[in-house]
Design brief:
Layout lengths: L1 H8 L5 H7 L3 H14 L26
Length: about 60
């Protein structure tokens, strides 16, 4: 964010563009959840998981 604001100060972009492009905390949370959903391995034991599974059947770790 600091770099983006520096670009605004230099006149290379606008605050509106920074707001449109920079991820907010909520946007980042949404992005991380989407990436986690796409992953096909358990974050705890590394076992292969099917997309429809909500928990790892091997170590019972929740997928999200």
């Amino acid at each position: 964010l600091a770099y983006s604001l520096m670009l605004v100060k230099q006149g290379l972009t606008t605050l509106e563009e920074v707001d449109r492009v920079v991820l907010t905390d909520k946007g980042l949370e949404t992005e991380l959840k989407a990436r986690a959903k796409a992953l096909s391995t358990c974050r705890n034991c590394g076992a292969a998981l099917r997309v429809e599974w909500m928990d790892c059947p091997y170590c019972l770790t929740p997928k999200f």
